[in-house]
Amino acid sequence: MGPFGFRCDWGRVTEIEENSKICLKWQISPKREPVPDPEKASDIYIHFLEKGESGLLKFTHFNFENHGEGFENYCKTMDSEMGWDYILKRFKEYCEGIKSNNNHQPYNKRQ
């Protein structure tokens, strides 16, 4: 559940291997709208790898053609500086903030 009680089903988990990977259906269209049909979704694989005392995340987003019209530009957008690079950078900063502040509250609603 997001801010103001808004819910958006943006995908579904298709596979989980503990401490190894998570696979998802990405059900947001090129128009940034939720699409309930998983056959019209692209796929995301997130692999967690050990790297010394820290970890490495290997992120792969593919099958954009399943989104239909506009998928080429959508793929380019998500591969750009303001796509997954931006999203994952913000996620990393959030996780680092939790770790450094020992604040384990997952989400604070805006007042």
Q: Cα-atom Rg, whole angstroms?
A: 16 Å
The CATH topology label is: Alpha-D-Glucose-1,6-Bisphosphate, Chain A, domain 4
Class of secondary structure makeup: alpha+beta
- As a percent range, the share of strand residues is 25-35%
Tally the helices. 2
Shape: globular
| CATH superfamily placement | START domain
Q: How would you characterize the largest beta sheet?
A: 4 strands, antiparallel
The strand count comes to 4
- The CATH class: Alpha Beta
> What's the structural domain tally?
1
Q: How many angstroms separate the termini?
A: 15 Å
Please state the second-level CATH architecture. Answer: 2-Layer Sandwich
Q: What strand order characterises the main sheet?
A: 1-2-3-4
Ordered list of secondary-structure elements with their pairings:
Layout: E1 11-17, E2 21-26, E3 42-51, E4 54-62, H1 71-78, H2 84-101
Antiparallel strand pairs: 1-2, 2-3, 3-4
Summed up:
With 111 residues, the chain is of the alpha+beta class. It has helices spanning 71-78, 84-101; strands spanning 11-17, 21-26, 42-51, 54-62.
Would you give an account of this structure?
- The protein is an alpha+beta fold.
- It has one domain: START domain (Alpha-D-Glucose-1,6-Bisphosphate, Chain A, domain 4, 2-Layer Sandwich).
- It has two helices and four strands, in the order ββββαα.
- A four-stranded antiparallel β-sheet has the order 1-2-3-4, with no helix packed on it.
- A hairpin with a 3-residue loop joins strand 1 and strand 2.
- The model is unreliable at about 105-110 (pLDDT under 50).
